[in-house]
Design a protein that fits this description.
Layout lengths: L1 E5 L4 H12 L3 E6 L5 E2 L5 H11 L2 E6 L14 H22 L3 E10 L12 H21 L3 E5 L8 H4 L11 H13 L6 E2 L2
Pfam family, one: adh_short_C2
InterPro entries: NAD(P)-bd_dom_sf, SDR_DHRS6-like, SDR_fam
Keywords: Oxidoreductase
């Protein structure tokens, strides 16, 4: 398959690039820098440019999404809008604009996270964004068939515990290998409208 991978230079994206490539897929990487296509997908105009440059695709895989972490009392309307643009609208645009560029039975795989169902202190923006993406996936699945759409909703990565573990006390973690396996299931499988929890 020919796969567009966004967030391709981050922790998860770099791992997915190797894993999907090792399975014989052709990867077109997207990131703000150091990728095949250097674009900021939080800007809908840049999403348009990505698809114009990428050519025909069999799948779109998202490993990108940024949200602010602050106590509710310190959050501003701009912070919540930043979370919406950084994780929700950017991924919705990948799907909305991607429909005519992805083959008839192709797929979209988006990223959410554990905070959609397990909140933490300072995580309201992330919880909001993750839950919104998951609701979108379920709703879009009934409209875009035979194209498919799923989301991956992991815990904090084991490999990222040194930097983020203190934000997730007692919540465990998930290895990148297990997260990547959920992406493989979404891309190569047949289900749609699923929220995979690796």
């Amino acid at each position: 398959m020919r796969i567009l991978l966004t967030g391709a230079t981050g922790t998860l994206g770099s791992y997915l690039h190797k894993r999907l490539s090792s399975r014989g897929h052709e990867i077109v990487s997207v990131a703000r820098r150091n990728a095949d296509l250097n674009h900021d997908i939080t800007d809908p105009a840049e999403v348009t440019a990505v698809y114009r440059a990428a050519g025909p695709l069999d799948a779109v895989v998202s490993a990108a999404g940024h949200v602010p972490f602050k106590p509710v009392a310190e959050m501003t309307p701009e912070d919540y809008l930043s979370a919406f643009h950084g994780k929700v609208l950017s991924q919705i645009e990948l799907v909305r604009q991607g429909l005519p560029h992805v083959t008839g039975r192709g797929s979209f795989t988006l990223i959410t996270g554990i905070l959609a169902r397990e909140p933490i202190v300072t995580g309201t923006a992330a919880s909001m964004a993750n839950a919104a993406v998951e609701a979108f996936v379920r709703a879009a699945a009934i409209e875009i068939a035979p194209q498919r759409i799923n989301a991956i909703s992991p815990n904090v990565f084991t490999e990222s515990l040194p930097g983020y573990g203190n934000l997730f006390p007692g919540m465990g973690s998930v290895d990148l290998a297990d997260v990547a396996q959920a992406y493989v299931r979404s891309v190569e499988g047949a289900q749609t409208g699923q929220i995979y929890v690796p």
